[in-house]
Amino acid sequence: MAIVLGPNQYGKAEVRLVHVARNGPVHQITDLNVSTALRGDFAAAHLSGDNAHVLTTDAQKNTVYAFAREHGIGQIEDFAIRLGHHFAGSLPGIDGARIEIEQYRWDRIQVDGVPHDHAFSRSAGEKRTTVVTLDRGTAFVVSGLAGLVLLKSTGSEFSGFLRDRYTTLPETTDRILATEVTARWRYAQSDLDFGRLFDGVRTALVSTFASLHSLALQQTLYRMGEAALTAHADVAEIRLSMPNKHHFLVDLEPFGLDNPNTVYYAADRPYGKIEGTVLRDDAPDPGPSWLTLPGFC
Ligand SMILES: O=c1[nH]c(=O)c2[nH]c(=O)[nH]c2[nH]1
Description:
The chain has 2 domains: 8-136, Urate Oxidase, CATH 3.10.270; 142-297, Urate Oxidase, CATH 3.10.270.10.
């Protein structure tokens, strides 16, 4: 029996980077959380403390800031691909990299209906994400979003489900449907108009949630994924995690009141957790795209 070193990677996690593009008086702000991870031959560092092939995590952090200054940022996928190629291509002993970026949304403040040049308000919660994996010169791009909270006050029912001795849930033909979408989708290639595609996938998800008459959150999830893939040939696969944010009708009978789908209790837990993948049957090989990405089936 021998004990050996298994898969490993290392990098700087959660480098907070804010970039202000000052092209004249109207500024653009990009607010990111960047994590880097390098893969390669780091056996000596782990086995004997020989750091000759270790690019410090401090240097990785510095590179993120320097690249923002030297090249700007643009779309987060393009920034991640640039960083990944740099780490995985230019240094000995490093043959792979994974760059993970979260982008926080800022909206330009309107003053008396006029967009302000340099003042912004942060839109709560929602993040745009990307994970770019560089593997022997090829970039695998998985983009997504998190914290997208959606609700419809009708147009959702849930009935006809399996019943056993513990089933008490009443069937309903009219309920609130609410969820907080986490989505990750894999692009079929890495040379794309990522900003346009992000907007397009987000629109497909949101508009399908709104317009589909839902028979179950599972059906809504599938149809949202299907709409994203139908609209965008460059999206090979999408994985969705959608908690069912239950809204229960409050029993007002003790007070002599009816409740015609008007007064609800918004429960925060427990919640149903509906997760699924929608993909093309001829999707290209994902390679290491999903490696180390937790939280999806
Ligand atoms: O859309 C739903 N899917 C379920 O699987 C489920 N289970 C449950 O209790 N309510 C719901 N709603």
